[in-house]
Amino acid sequence: MLLLYTVMIVMFATQPQNDPLQDLQLARKDFQQTKKMGSIFSSSDGSMEATSRQANIYYIKQLVQGKRNVAMYQDASQSTTVVYKGLGVASSAVDGNTDPYFKIGSVTATEDGECNPWWMVKLDKIYTIHSVELHNRLDSCCSERLANFTVELLTPNGNSFITTAQVEGTGKLVGAAGLIIFPSGSYGSIVRVSLRSCSPLSLAEVMVYETESSTDTIEPNLLKSKVDVELEAKETELRVSSLKFYLYDGNSFTFEKNLAPNRISFKRYLGEILFDEALLTILKRSTFRTADSKIADVFVPAIPFSRLINLSHKETVILPALEDLINNEVFKENSGHRHVFIGTSFCLFRKDCNFAAVMIPYMHHFVNTTLAMSWDPNAVSTAVKEGHDFKEYQKTFESYGEPFTHTSISLGLNPQPNPSIISFPKRIMGATHEITVPIRIASMTKWSKASNFIFYQVKNSNFFNNSTIYRTSPLIKSMEMLPKSKIGWGIESPKEFVEELLDSKFCLVIRGDSPHSKSFLRSIRAGCIPVVVSDCLPIYSPVMKSTLNMTDYSIMLDETRFVENPEAELLSLLDLSEETIEAKLKHLAFAQKVTMLDHPDSLFVPAFLREAVNAFHNNHDNMATENFLVTGGGNGEVVHKF
Asked: Which parts of 566-632 fold into alpha helices (H)?
């Protein structure tokens, strides 16, 4: 569990004194009254004279007497480094020199204008930490910059980190030095200092004190399960992501068009259309958005491409926006690179689909863009060329031809309308024929209380690509040995459908006309472990594959064995250990945050940006000027350009 403390700043040594011991006596009463974990003790005047500064530091040394500084000469780094005569480097804060003036050469400095700058030091092992001592820069220009800062203790997890303890300063450390005392038992092998502002970060020295009992390496996995550590690391990386996107939403670049006056065509795809509208709304509100195209990592035109399926929107919405985008200076400057088009309707951007005809005259302008779809056409095309056997889907996939663009990402087939995000007219919502399922957070408690072992409902009809035999198998073969389940040809009442779904442990997701199914993301929403019968799905529609591994939160059953004996395959779920089930549910709860726009702790936007940037990198052979790679690090994702 992350320990978070709000900082109290205790002021002392407000006037210059000749005797540091006198200052210490004057401050001792305040110290005794406020001594607590998660507090900062600092001087109050950044322009104090040397004797007062010495008193300040002397006082702090009394608090850490007998404790060892484990940070000196260790490996330090920072988000950026100011370019000025070789000064300002990260190692200046762990060189043992506390001189607070920049030109002396022992003060760090990040670049001016960078937002949320950070500095960190990597210790030689994991220590239990008593406190962190910060020495401020005291040049007249800059002593007040160390404000609204955060000090974190981190531990490694593979190539990324988790935060084990964190202190947030809400005031200014304008004096010579401050001491952050962490709660008993806090541990870490990395200390990170960051600003929650767009000011440069400068530190004269950082000292990290271990507790007296810290003699051996502390293994975080002794305190938390491996799954907990892994998921906390992933979530931290996403939440502190430095990725930014630029949204074209002026002039004709807007999705805020009234759907009501237009006729509704192809109701089958209306759920995906409404999902795309909700996604664009979330992006417009996101804190990861920047108005400065120069610092953007990703560019998103707010064009509702899924409305191409509703042909009445073609002339009034899509085509004018495409013309404006092609002529936009930002788009031309980037030649379409790092641009993401959002359109999750299944029939979009397929050369075998009539809806694509509208785009064909424009696609030579957009070949460098990335498509965000319900499936990954580039991954499928590559697999076909490499000889992958897609069985009954093989001819269908070959008919798709070459993808429109060099790169694509999969968001999954998500038909869920999101009235909590954007309000649609009742006539539109009523036409979707999609069932609204509330989010139920996956947990062992919810799973244990569920009364249905398996949930599976399917309409009684034929499916393309020989999928009928897979979808009907659980209904036409014996299931007498299964524990109580809800398997049938459909539930007429939407209310009953939702109630039974939410009251189920496992949800069957079986391939259909395509390898993906709406029931996959629906089961994730419901906190029901997906049981997938679709051998092609991990290639065809790997939802947010840069962040999620489908097998972590799902159970994959072989298609052939399932058709032969569905009951035996489903009964095998009873052999899963409680440890395995619990791990699946923890990963499922994380997947809910990553895939759901309306999750109260949604991670969709940073995961979407990571997905896009990694797609740019994977297409490096086609990039005109720059390649990108997202890596986990102490500051979350780092975009490397090389």
From this structure: 566-571, 578-595, 604-618
